[in-house]
Specification:
Blueprint: H1 3-13, H2 38-44, H3 47-59, H4 65-81, E1 86-91, E2 99-100, E3 103-104, E4 106-108, E5 114-116, H5 120-124, E6 125-126, H6 138-141, E7 146-150, E8 157-159, E9 162-171, H7 180-198, E10 208-222, H8 223-227, H9 230-235, H10 260-275, E11 280-285, E12 291-296, E13 299-300, H11 301-321, E14 324-327, E15 341-349, H12 362-381, H13 383-388, E16 411-412, H14 415-427, H15 435-446, H16 448-453, E17 464-466, E18 471-473, H17 483-509, H18 514-529, H19 541-550, H20 558-562, H21 568-576, H22 582-636, H23 639-679, H24 683-711, H25 722-727
Parallel strand pairs: 1-9, 16-17
Antiparallel strand pairs: 1-2, 1-3, 4-5, 6-7, 7-9, 8-9, 10-12, 10-13, 10-14, 10-15, 11-12, 15-18, 17-18
The protein binds adenosine-5'-diphosphate and magnesium ion (MG).
Length: 729
């Protein structure tokens, strides 16, 4: 076995199981110890200051300087009691990860001493510079500075002796340079729009929050094997590797018993999450070998987004203690399922009602239907922008690859709800409805909870599925910052609800009763957007054809799909609602394209290196062995027996030559295309060149390498094989 692979396997066999004792058997005894939630804040703040903070959070208001000073000193006291020495503003820059820049609490005095210090100023705003973070050109043109500003609605927390303060990140000229700023704006307008519509049904509703419960899929791989795969280390996915004889075909991994070493890791990382107040509830094996999933109880969307970003960090950190690596890439292995991050989304009112859950009365059910249909219409009208929010070089491998929802955005409602929509369409009439007609309709609606109770069918092939009391956006990729799709969804729904309110009020002003006006507008929306409804198999070829005939778009290439960010319709929505300006959208579009280009560029380089420096020399070595063997046979055997004895080897020698020659040729061609693409100045054209001219080589080269893997002596093969990567644990 090659040195790399051999050493890795040796390491693996010597792994001790690492068991980290939990702080206590009862999670309630240590849950949230490292997070400064409102309850804890209350203990550290004067009452008036606390009420000020709470009010600011509830009403999207401001926090004045005096209060900020009090909060800063409370945070410092709390954090230092827990051993913190540093603080940082913690934000979500547009490179997809999280950023922090630690400063020590201590401050020197003029007499040469130091004291611990943290003021309201430092809490509220920082200038982390961070000029290398992506800005899509926003920062070059004016001022280079970037500012981070405190987000009081997400609690501060401690990681590794550092107090982390969630913040937004904006440019000197006020443009958003992060994911959180537009998310907060979208939550604000959604609150306002949803409250107004809820008021048709319940005057007590004064606030509506959006809830998000994500499900995070990931792979684990042993650290030693990981290091023996330069493609995993540098490109986050395997760029070669023949399918293992057994992978997921027996479906024996899904929901199977979790391997002991993996459980030890999971318990450890869950405990770290609990300390940070991340309410993880669910863990299980996923479909592919060594693939797993975790999910928390849903939370307010901004907090849930922060928690997901934090979780991805915590997972990676804890995995290293267990000599595992977490692979968050959407498709680390060819031929087995990739990883997604389902975004379960709903709306919750201050009266405690989940608005997307059927209620107990015709009135609450009409509210439920109103929001369901408006959401469906919003997704219909902005499906391209929704898709743009989740495409990436990684997610390209999932969307439309017959294992994840396709690149066609459709909505699944289930048989029962679909029938209710059909009833509304047929029973609500153009003319004024009679009292009998209205009563009948209301009776129908009153029955929804009973019919739904045992009948929520699931469709796992739908990108956007109603699952009984929430929508599940299933097409989101495993590395995606949930803020991106949630911002689009919230804004589209907010905009839709505003239009709905205007339309209904207009009908009411012509003398129609409220319920009838609502029914009439809902009927209109059902007709306008029903082409997006699809109940069948989203993975099937028939659906691709049917979607085309319905006029739904199917865009698999990320650079093409990303165009929706700057379409007039998207700008009208996001800029019109003051969530992202045209300039900010333009910048985001460019950043996403640049990231895409760089990812493909890295993959192409890594594959080129591996092919030329690892694979070709290996196969030549094996070929030489065969040649020597053939020569030897020729020396010792009579000519009549030689053909039989050496036939297999001679054939292998030829096949190796053929594949090797093609690999070298294709690598040369790919390098040529890359050079051409690199010369292109325009970001958009360059991404297209990488997508169309360079990317196809990755699969073409890999094809020959994977064939060679089956020919060459296992002893010589330099890289851990799929069966090792997928089954070692
Ligand atoms: P499944 O795999 O069947 O979809 P899971 O239990 O793995 O179910 O995940 C369901 C997710 O949906 C959880 O994160 C859960 O918190 C979330 N969820 C449930 N109700 C809501 C809701 N009202 N709003 C947002 N998310 C929700
Ligand atoms: Mg699940």
């Amino acid at each position: 076995m090659s040195t790399y692979r051999f050493a890795a396997m040796q390491e693996l066999f010597n792994r001790p199981a690492i068991v980290v004792p939990a702080p206590s058997d009862k999670v309630s005894e240590f849950y949230g110890v490292n997070t400064l939630d409102l309850d804890t804040m209350k203990k550290y703040l004067p009452l008036e200051a606390f009420q000020n903070v709470k009010k600011a959070i509830d009403t999207w208001g401001h926090i004045d300087r005096k209060v900020a000073d009090a909060v800063a000193s409370a945070m410092k006291a709390w954090a230092m009691e827990r051993g913190a020495t540093h603080y940082t503003h913690w934000f979500h820059p547009l490179n997809g990860s999280t950023a922090e820049k630690h400063d020590a609490f201590f401050e020197p005095t003029s007499d040469g001493n130091v004291f611990e210090h943290f003021s309201g100023n430092e809490l509220i705003q920082q200038e982390p510079d961070a000029s290398s973070l992506p800005s899509g050109g926003i920062r070059n043109t004016f001022e280079a500075r970037g500012y981070s500003a405190w987000d009081p609605s997400s609690p501060a927390f401690i990681v590794d002796k550092t107090l982390c303060i969630p913040t937004v990140f904006i440019s000197y000229t006020g443009e958003a340079l992060d994911y959180k700023t537009p998310l907060l704006k979208s939550l604000f307008i959604l609150d306002k729009a949803a409250v107004k519509v809820c008021q048709y049904f319940d005057k007590d509703v004064s606030k509506v929050i959006s809830t998000l419960g994500w499900e995070q899929e990931y792979f684990l791989v042993d650290e030693a094997l990981y290091y023996a795969r330069p493609d995993l280390v540098l490109a986050d996915r395997t760029l070669m590797g023949h399918a293992s004889a057994k992978d997921q075909q027996l479906e024996d991994h899904y929901f199977g018993s979790i391997p002991e070493r993996v459980v030890a890791f999971m318990k450890d990382f869950e405990n770290e999450c609990y300390k940070l107040g991340i309410p993880l509830r669910t863990r299980h094996n996923e479909v592919a070998p060594n693939q797993f999933e975790c999910a928390p109880v849903f939370e307010e969307a901004n907090l849930a987004v922060d928690h997901n970003q934090l979780l991805m960090d915590v997972m990676k950190r804890v995995a290293r203690h267990h000599k595992f690596r977490v692979l968050l890439h959407e498709k680390p292995y060819k031929g087995v399922n990739g990883s997604g991050k389902h975004n379960n989304w709903s709306l919750l009112s201050n009266t405690g009602v989940n608005i997307l859950s059927p209620g107990t009365t015709p009135k609450t059910n009409l509210q439920f239907l109103t929001f369901l249909i408006n959401t469906m219409k919003a997704v219909h009208d902005h499906s391209e922008l929704l898709r743009a929010s989740i495409v990436s070089a990684g997610n390209e491998h999932r969307l439309g690859a017959n294992e994840a929802p396709p690149a066609i955005i459709s909505v699944f409602l289930g048989k029962q709800i679909t029938k209710v929509l059909k009833d509304i369409e047929s029973k609500v009439t153009q003319k004024k409805m009679t009292p009998d007609e209205k009563t009948e309709l209301k009776l129908d609606i009153g029955k929804i909870p009973e019919i739904l109770l045992d009948n929520t069918d699931r469709n796992r092939t739908s990108p956007f599925a109603f699952t009984g009391n929430r929508f599940e956006f299933r097409a989101v990729g495993s590395t995606t910052n949930c803020a991106a799709p949630m911002t689009v969804l919230n804004t589209a729904v907010a905009n839709q609800l505003e239009e709905f309110k205007i339309a209904v009020d207009k009908l009411i002003s012509t003398g129609l009763k409220k319920d009838e006006a609502i029914f009439k507008i809902l009927r209109k929306y059902i007709i306008a957007s029903k082409r997006i409804l699809f109940e069948g198999n989203g993975y099937s070829d028939e659906w691709v054809e049917e979607a085309l005939s319905r006029g739904l778009t199917n865009v698999k290439e990320a650079p093409e799909a990303l165009k929706a960010y700057i379409s007039p319709k998207s700008i009208a929505l996001l800029a019109g609602k003051n969530v992202l300006s045209a300039r900010e959208l333009d910048a985001r579009y460019d950043i996403r394209l640049e990231t895409y280009t760089k990812k493909i560029q890295i993959e192409a380089r890594v594959l080129g290196d591996l092919a030329v420096n690892h694979i070709v020399p290996t196969v030549i070595r094996y070929q030489n062995r065969l040649i020597e063997n053939v020569k030897g046979l020729k020396d010792i055997l009579p000519a009549s027996e030689f053909g039989d004895a050496a036939g297999h080897q001679l054939n292998a020698i030829k096949r190796i030559s053929k594949h090797k020659a093609l690999i070298q040729e294709l690598v040369d061609e790919m390098v040529g295309e890359r050079k051409k693409a690199n010369k292109i100045e325009n970001i958009r054209d360059k991404a297209n060149a990488y997508s169309i001219q360079v990317k196809p080589f990755l699969d073409r080269i890999r094809y020959h390498i994977d064939k060679l893997e089956l020919i060459v002596d296992d002893d010589l093969w330099p890289l851990p094989k799929y069966r090792e990567l997928l089954y070692a644990r």
